[in-house]
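[Q] Does anyone have a clean structure-token version of this?
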Amino acid sequence: MKRLQLGISLVEAMIAFVIMGAGMLAMIGMESALGFNSDVSRQRSEAVRLAEEAMERLRTFARLSDANDDLSSFDGFTNGTTVKGVGSGNLSNTAFTIATSLRDQGHHREAKIQVEWTDSFGHSGEANDRFVALHSVIARLDPALSGRLTVPPPGAAQVQPLGRHVSIPPDARDFGNGRSGYVPPGRNVTTAWVFDNQSGLVIRVCNVQVAIGNVTLTEALLRSSTCADLPGSSRIGYVVRGTVRLATGDRASPAVAQAPADATLDLDMTMSLSSVGEWQCFDDSSTAQRQSAVEYVCLVQMARDASGWSGRLSVSPAGWNFGGTAEAYRLCRYSADYDGNGTIANPEHPATYAAVRTNLAYQNFLLVRGDRSCPADTTAQASIGVNGNTVQHEPQR
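[A] Here you go.
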């Protein structure tokens, strides 16, 4: 009897090996891709961590380190730093480049942190999506002033957390002996004032060099300057300060008045006194660089035995006009009967001040289009100068 031979031929074995080899290659490719993607994912997570850490370093600066508040004035400012990732060996298989950029926007900085790296195949940078970028805004405020959020309204006798009267400008330099020095805002300012920390009153006026700012101001510099001691001349100085903001949109609502965002106009602050006294005003408005708010401060000097100063504070346009058309502007003042006693007292920003014998802060204004009314809340909020309740100030009715 003829027997059948059972088994696998050489051709069949080769086909099986080819199929198995293709499957193994596919598995190896898949494993390689999974490993590469996992590696990139880990690197991206590490880049995000480094970017967040760099942004927090910018946010937690200890002080503004120079008088001009340059872009690099934040302590710890770095740019183009190269660091290794967390861990060692395979856990840290690439280097990360951290680029920090800050753009000056007047009272704040626009911050950008970009972290780039090179993957295991040599792909790097924005062109290969090997980067992470974080954007944020950092206020140009001295960290020591954060306690001012809990300061009581103007007119109160309490002392603020910095150990000074609430009405003293927050960026005044504390000399540590019960006095603070202050250079008013503006361009080419050659004046400095000395405050008594307890009363908040100006007790000395000095002539200083233009280059001196509040950050570098010291009592030794003032001693070498020409100063007039107000108490010694039987005079006293009261300060009025606040901001001027702008809202030029079609709608000037209370909500807009609470947070106006338009860039301000160039202007000057003026006073007209109906009492005996002298005044000088300073502001930081500029035609070269517009900011979200113009800060101003005025000093009224008068005889110590006088009953107080009386008068009106106004905005003087520089290159624009007041009027009732869309091309002109209307000046509104933040004002209301905050204490509910039926009158608008001096700290509540009246149209005309009367017998003022204290410093006045938060005397804020809002500019709107001339064909729009001043926004008004139905019920004024209790925080002076921070609500949406305004009344027309200029043009005078």
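[Q] Thanks! Anything notable?
[A] The first strand starts at residue 81 and ends at 84.
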